Amino acid sequence: MRLPRLLRTTPFRLTLLFLALFAAAASAFLGYIYVASMWPRRAR
Length: 44
Prior knowledge:
The protein is mostly helical. The chain has one helix at residues 10-43.
């Protein structure tokens, strides 16, 4: 089964790549904020 023509285009694949990179960076940033904000509470 072949993919539809849109899914095989380079711009669509680059869009998916940058979307995945953005999601990973945003998740890492929010995870860092969560850990940094919870650290003082655990130290007590």
